[in-house]
Amino acid sequence: MTARALIHMPANAKAGEIVEIRALIAHPMESGYRPGADGKPVPQDVIRSFTCTYAGEQVFAAELHPAIAANPYLAFFTRATVTGTLEFTWRGDNGFAQTERKTLTVTP
User: Fold this and answer.
1) What distance separates the 2 farthest-apart alpha carbons in the chain?
2) For the chain, what is the mean pLDDT?
3) Helix (H, G, I), strand (E, B) or coil at 94
4) How many other CB atoms are found less than 10 A from the CB of residue 40?
């Protein structure tokens, strides 16, 4: 299963510039405590972790829990150092894993 992911970040930055990165993924984040239409609990389906690497180095990570709302949105900052790829990975229940990539071009 893939989910729709939205990532907002600049495509270009100057060396040393701080850039804001915003990442959202469409996911129900079902806690497992809510009853369904049949009165039985809806099975838990939660994204457990998020990581972002920049040119192969981890720059941000988060653990997510059932109390986090659907469609988790994360915003963080990193310093532009080299032209490279940022890789965003979400992992969750039922083998859920999704990776998205964006390139940041750094100018001197």
Assistant:
1) 60
2) 96
3) helix
4) 8
